[in-house]
Amino acid sequence: MGFRAKVVWASLVGSMTAVTALLMALDHGSPTRLDGVSLPAMVATQPSASIEAVFRTRVPAADGQWLAIVIDHTGAPFGTPASINAEHKAMGLKGLGYDFVIGNGQGMSDGEIHVGERWLEQTPGAHTAGPDGDWYNRHAIGIALVGDGTRRGFSQTQMTRLLDLVSALAREYQIPPERIVLHSDVAPVAGPGRYFPAASLREQIDSWR
Q: Over 24-61, what HEC string results?
């Protein structure tokens, strides 16, 4: 391995370690169980009917609690709620840090939406790093796409389901377009990656005004 490659690798490891440490510090409270529900991809042809299920939480949402949405990727081509939960616990978090995970056909069905325990119990997430991470984890809804957007794009079904979910959440909690952000917009991280269609997503979100 050449000197330049070693420097790049060391920088990457260092940044990942810093992000992990920050998320651990921000993840307060009791351990999170892996006890969510899934909206199957097969009902994606009737998105309005299926998406409404996300509002049937065990604990009612507090007025003014949800003020933003943060979109990220899992950083790996394969993922299930169980595998991501295990990864997050290995990082020192108290279980799955995202509120929602959208599958890509590798581990979860393409377009399947996993509704996490944190969302069902309306507890803070552990999905956003950066200087304002504590605020985002308490007041932003964390959505992750299974995949690594630094290496390849996401499926069309994933993106359709993401838009369905973001649209429903923004409407329900009156979240304005400028508060719908990528993780990399608010923290020094790569996710959801350069292959995420940020411009297209922003154009569609802005059309909701």
A: HHHCCCCCCCCCCEEECHHHHHCHHHHHHHHHCCCCCC
CA distance from start to end of the chain: 51
Identify the burial level of 160 via C-beta atoms within 10 angstroms of its C-beta, where 0-12 means exposed, 13-18 middle and 19 or more buried: middle
Q: Are 117 and 42 in contact (CB under 8 A)?
A: no
Residue that the structure tokens 């998406």 belong to: 51
Boundaries of every domain in the chain = 3-206
Does domain 3-206 fall under CATH 3.40.80.10? My reply is yes
Per residue of the chain (209 residues), give pLDDT as tens: 444 443 333 343 344 434 544 565 557 555 555 567 888 875 445 655 589 999 999 999 999 999 999 999 999 999 999 999 999 999 999 999 999 999 999 999 999 999 999 999 999 999 999 999 999 999 999 999 999 999 999 999 999 999 999 999 999 999 999 999 999 999 999 999 999 999 999 999 999 87
C-alpha distances in Å from residue 88, one per residue of 105, 125, 175: 21, 12, 27
